[in-house]
Design a protein that fits this description.
It is a single chain. The chain is an alpha+beta fold. It folds into two domains: about 80 residues, Nuclear Transport Factor 2, Chain: A (Roll), CATH 3.10.450.360; about 70 residues, Nuclear Transport Factor 2, Chain: A. It is about 25% helix and about 45% strand. A nine-stranded antiparallel β-sheet has the order 1-2-3-4-5-6-7-8-9.
Length: about 170
Amino acid sequence: MIRFSLFLMLSVTYLILATACYAEKKIKKADVPPKIISAIYKDYPGARRVSYYMDTQNDTLIYEVELTYNKEKLTLIFFSDGSLYELEKKVKFKSLPTETQKNIFFYLNKNYSRYKISEVQFVNPHLKIEYELNVKAKDETGFKFYDMYFNENGILLHRDEIIVKPIQTLF
């Protein structure tokens, strides 16, 4: 009985901590500010598979809307006042301008002995063109995972290392 109580207490604690660490929360359409709903239906008429999320970034409340429009999956990020902060769209690397591709390859070849681009997104924060690449790359210390942000010319703006932590289990 003591083991079961301890297991139950640890499980509840883990769930509370896991929920607190992961701030993004799926919400209902009714919980989204009307200005955001209006903007979506005005700019993306006929959007399908619309999902709504609420999150905080840098202590600012944001709303993330995922939808399919003209057979493309889009992610729109809004401030609570209804203004659009960012648009994200998955694209193929080959669809980027040739010069942009060359500059990205130059950067990757110069800094990593091996790499693999797993995903590319067109990102439009504050009406600027950027590309976000998810990259697995090997340097002198081993393989690491990165989100790399390049401008429209393929020049690295910044890179964020993704720390992959093993999942702790009780079993």
